[in-house]
Amino acid sequence: MGASGLLEFFGGLLVLVGFKTRYAAFILSGEMAVTYWWMHFPRGLTPIQNGGDLPVLFCFTFLFLWAAGPGRFSVDGVLAARAGAAEG
User: Which of 8-26 are b and which e, b meaning 16 or more Cβ less than 10 Å from the residue's Cβ?
Assistant: First the structure.
């Protein structure tokens, strides 16, 4: 539980500011999937029955952030824009 809390706190901070967003979102998505299968799925078949609707929601939200990447106003976006401006 302590490792999960550390992942959620520091990974959430990384996603919030947009630094290393793809890496953090991928790891957090996996963590939410593990949370659902280990803690909620044994209690029932569907997320509505077993109370696992939030882990499923966060899992797919983090998967979307992994696929879409950070926006241009994130730390990663600003660093990429500076690198592009320095080259051109």
Answer: eeebeebbeebbbbeebbb
79 backbone φψ class: left, alpha, beta (φ>0; ψ -120 to 50): alpha
b/e sequence 60-74, b meaning 16+ C-beta within 10 Å? eebbebbeeebeeeb
Please report, for the chain, the start and end positions of each structural domain, with discontinuous segments joined by +: 2-87
pLDDT tens, position by position, 38-77: 999 999 999 999 999 999 999 999 999 999 998 889 999 9
Residues 6+ apart with CB under 8 A from 62: 15, 25, 26, 28, 29, 32
Residue 32 has, within 13 A of its CA and on its CB side, a CA count of 22
Tell me the whole-structure pTM to 2 decimals.
0.87
